[in-house]
Amino acid sequence: MGLKGKLIASMEVRCGGHSVHDMFHTNIHHIRNISPKLINHFEIHEGEVGKIGAVLCWKYIDDGKEKFLKEEIKNIDPQKKSITWEVIEGDVLELYNFFTIITSNEHQWTTVTFEYEKKTEDTPEPLSFLDYFINVTKDIEGHLLSK
């Protein structure tokens, strides 16, 4: 069909991939304070930080507009330092039937993978959301390096 897609971006992080993973895994509630120009609001809707099944809600600025995202942690792999989130509500689901975010961190690298299915052939690739995610990761890196 050609409606399913995958975007992958890797960036070198001077603070170490393990530090970025720790931020996404156990300190995700601090990201709102680290990147206040990109994230307006964060809350844990259900469950506990860093646990499979936790539901997280975000209000964020993407492409100059405030947007909303609710995601559930589906998998955590401590050996690969990866986390899989499934988007269950929000603006991104207006364009995509499903949307999954996977972060993996090793050595000096952080990789984000988006797996998704477009609602129509004309739906654009989620490049602006990928750019947004990279900018949040850069804010995290800057915060960790300043410690």
Automatic annotation (TrEMBL):
Organism domain of life: Eukaryota
**Residue intervals of the Bet v I/Major latex protein domain:** 2-147
Q: What GO terms describe the biological role, i.e. biological process, of this protein?
A: defense response
Listed PANTHER family: MLP-LIKE PROTEIN 423
Q: Output this protein's name.
A: Bet v I/Major latex protein domain-containing protein
> From what organism does this protein derive?
Solanum bulbocastanum
